[in-house]
Design a protein that fits this description.
Helix content is 37%, strand content 24%. A 4-stranded mixed beta sheet has the order 4-5-1-11, with helices on one face. It has a 3-stranded antiparallel beta sheet with strand order 6-10-9, with helices on one face. Strand 4 and strand 5 form a beta hairpin. The protein is globular, with a radius of gyration of 18 Å.
């Protein structure tokens, strides 16, 4: 089953809380946190480490196994864990960090609905997707345009993250508007991938996975 763990990075704004959780992180995560000079970036990196750890524990990975875990990377930079049979992917946006977990390959993307999208849609969306948004724009429904734009964008992002090829795959090859059977087109074929969507406040979250079952709610990490 696919699950998503999320937290607000502002919960780490107090120094004593930040230090408490920083000390619980593996050395590899501490080094990533230390590499940032901006406080917000440090909080975001630590939050990513926290949701990642919670996810592993929830999936039954023992603490001593987590402490010894080793990250590996495919040729395009997608990380995976050596000798730990759990798939994961991380994302962050604004004040939030989120992690998706499952038993099969997956990708997760989180974006603010208010972000500017016209230049992105012109460059990366298929003709059908662009026409779909154009029809909404002509009705002067700006809120709906932004919501639909960000759904399309997070589907594309989550898919390329799931397959582990990054943007080298060619993001315009992904047709995210479902056909009459609710399928998403990739290279004009119907792949064995499923898209799951959450919405929270001003953010859209999409998970792309080969699994057919997902936990229907976001798992909020309260510290």
């Amino acid at each position: 089953m696919v699950k998503a763990y999320i937290m607000n990075i502002k919960k780490l704004s107090k120094l004593e809380i930040f230090e408490q959780y920083y000390q619980c992180m593996p050395l590899t995560r501490q080094k990533k946190i230390d590499a940032f000079s901006c406080k917000t970036d440090k909080m975001r990196s630590l939050a990513a480490g926290i949701v990642f750890m919670y996810g592993l524990l929830d999936f039954g990975i023992k603490k001593n196994k987590i402490e010894q875990m080793k990250f590996c990377y495919n040729e395009y930079g997608k990380p995976y864990l050596e000798d730990i049979p759990v798939q994961f992917n991380l994302s962050h946006a604004g004040d939030y960090a989120i992690a998706g977990f499952g038993n099969k390959e997956l990708g997760i993307d989180m974006e603010c609905i208010k972000r500017e999208g016209k230049k992105i849609s012109d460059r990366f969306f298929t003709e059908r997707e662009q026409q779909y948004l154009k029809n909404i724009g002509e009705k002067k429904q700006e809120k709906q345009w932004r919501e639909e734009f960000i759904k399309i964008w997070t589907r594309k992002e989550s898919f390329v993250k799931a397959i582990g090829l990054g943007l080298s795959f060619g993001i315009r090859n992904i047709e995210t508007l479902a056909d009459e059977n609710g399928k998403i087109l990739i290279h004009k074929q119907y792949p064995l991938w499923n898209f799951y969507e959450y919405k929270t406040e001003d953010y859209q979250i999409t998970i792309c996975s080969q699994e057919t079952e997902i936990y229907e709610k976001l798992i909020w990490i309260e510290i």
